[in-house]
Design goal:
The chain has a domain of 91 residues. It is an all-alpha fold. The N terminus is likely disordered.
């Protein structure tokens, strides 16, 4: 055997050991062990009046859009009222997101169909304001507030 043969055999062996094993992909590292992360507290259960509150937030978004579209002086107060509702009822991030999402849904729903202020915009704002007022009274009467 020549003197180069042991060196060549060592190189071939080293290359073979460096190749990925069957079923492994080249360049892929083994996953690091996952350390347990602190568990998040379970979500707070929704109060029994959650559906009504979400509907109220949606109404507030709709009225905010319509009153702004028609350049009514109380247009800005609807957003302020929503902020107050979130401050009072948004005890968790998930709850704040649900309420804000409902407000935004109501706002966008009318933004899609009302581009300029017309009589139907005014009528819709009045109807929604009445529904929101009734809903707020029912919530306060039944659940306090």
């Amino acid at each position: 055997m020549s003197s180069a043969a042991p060196i060549l055999a060592a190189c071939v062996l080293a290359m073979a050991l460096a190749l990925p094993a069957e079923g492994q992909q080249r360049g892929q590292a083994r996953p690091a062990p996952v350390s347990p992360s602190p568990q998040e507290p379970p979500p707070e259960p929704a109060p029994p009046y959650e559906p009504q509150l979400v509907r109220l937030a949606e109404i507030m978004g709709s009225v905010a859009y319509l009153r702004g579209l028609c350049a009514r002086p109380d247009a800005a107060t609807w957003r302020e009222r929503m902020e107050a509702l979130i401050a009072a009822e948004g005890r968790s991030p998930q709850r704040r997101d649900r309420l804000a999402g409902a407000y935004n849904r109501g706002f966008r729903a009318y933004a899609l169909t009302h581009r300029i202020c017309v009589a139907t915009s005014e009528t819709a704002a009045q109807r929604l304001s009445g529904e929101g007022e009734k809903l707020a009274r029912e919530l306060a009467g039944r659940f306090g507030g």
